[in-house]
Amino acid sequence: MAPRTIDLRSDTVTRPDAAMRAAMAGAEVGDDVLDHDPTMAALEERIAAMLGYEAGLWVPSGTMGNTIALMMHLQRGDSFLAPEHAHVLGSELGTAAWLAQGMPQVLPHDAGPGRPTPAAVAAASGAGPYYTLHPRLLCLENSHNFAGGSVFDAEEWNALLKAGRDAGLLVHLDGARVWNAAVALGVPVSELTRGADTVQVCLSKGLGAPVGSMLVSDTARIGEARRIRKMLGGGVRQGGVLAAAGLVALDNIDSLAGDHANARLLADGLRERGWTVEPPETNIVLARSGVSVADLAELGIAAVTVTGKTRFVTHRDVCRADIEEALGRL
Ligand SMILES: *Cc1c(COP(=O)(O)O)cnc(C)c1O
Questions:
Q1: Atom in ligand 1 nearest the alpha carbon of residue 63
Q2: Which atom of ligand 1 is nearest to the CA of 64?
Q3: Distance between CA atoms of 236 and 242, rounded to whole angstroms?
Q4: What span, in angstroms and rounded, lies between the C-alpha atoms of 17 and 10?
Q5: Per-residue pLDDT of the chain (330 residues; tens, 9 = 90+)
Q6: Cis bond leading into 61, ω under 30°?
Q7: Which residue's CA is minimally distant from atom 3 of ligand 1?
Q8: Residue ranges covered by each domain of the chain
Q9: From the alpha carbon of 66, which atom of ligand 1 is closest?
Q10: What superfamily does domain 6-15+255-329 belong to in CATH?
């Protein structure tokens, strides 16, 4: 018999638990396109306040949240700066270019994994002659997915914001996993989100919602974002059923610490077994060995390859015993 699969491909594989399904079933709802669904409105207000912004807009996915933000910020002839391997660069089908009309400019990880220095931002945003691109937007990612869930702290965030502002740039934070960053650093999430023009956060990753992200900004921009969401086909009707899952997901933030502990356990175990492992800062482990993803699948361990390394992601549907079991199979 094939062993039970321990799924470490992503923290998006979690299934809504009984409490979340009950909240969804019992949600108060309205037509969010015609009016404003009350549960959607409650979730938007709550997350905007948590992140330090005036207003929020629920969106079906992180990709749509990022796309709407970039569509608001960019126009033809503009460039946007993002750290190498950012999700907006390589994992969103080039929407930043063909929908938002921005030309990407890649920033180095010269401050550490996933982290550009303020000097790199300054160097990449200088103005040139009329035929050169207008650098318009700095797009940061915390935690940085493909750099192994790496984190930058509030001091670094503020220094990067300042470098962006000094260069006349707008700033968007792709905070798909900023909850993980806040838990890892032991700070309120607002310390890592405040001060940008727009922030996108996911509810469907470590927090366990089946669907949903949030874009936050000032009230005027969120009004415009609501129009663009409709343009992209992202307006939903009785969205309260989905927003209710998001409200329950917010209760799961503290439990991310357990995912981080499991990631460290996995990293230590892999190292003992001869793998080359980067120390995990959150719930993502990047590692290398002669063992391929296909070999792992034979052992009932599901992982993926990113940037030439094997990526394991811990999440609320795997426990410590599952990690020990996976290490045992190796
Ligand atoms: C997952 C992810 C997204 C996109 O979220 P989806 O809901 O899958 O569209 C954006 N940015 C980062 C850093 C992510 O990890």
A1: 9
A2: 9
A3: 10
A4: 17
A5: 568 999 999 999 999 999 999 999 999 999 999 999 999 999 999 999 999 999 999 999 999 999 999 999 999 999 999 999 999 999 999 999 999 999 999 999 999 999 999 999 999 998 899 999 999 999 999 999 999 999 999 999 999 999 999 999 999 999 999 999 999 999 999 999 999 999 999 999 999 999 999 999 999 999 999 999 999 999 999 999 999 999 999 999 999 999 999 999 999 999 999 999 999 999 999 999 999 999 999 999 999 999 999 999 999 999 999 999 999 999
A6: no
A7: 62
A8: 6-15+255-329, 18-250
A9: 10
A10: Aspartate Aminotransferase, domain 1 (3.90.1150.10)
| CB of 326 closer than 8 Å to CB of 301 | yes
Write the residue with the smallest CA distance to atom 5 of ligand 1.
62
Q: Is any ligand 1 atom within 6 A of the Cβ of residue 204? A: yes
CATH number among 3.20.20.70, 3.30.750.200, 3.40.630.30, 3.40.640.10, domain 18-250? 3.40.640.10
2 CA to middle of ligand 1, Å? 31
- Distance between alpha carbon 321 and the CA centroid of its chain, in Å? 27
Indicate whether residue 85 lines ligand 1 (CB < 6 A). no
* Ligand 1 contacts CB of residue 73 (under 6 A): no
Q: Is 85 left (phi over 0), alpha (psi -120 to 50) or beta?
A: left
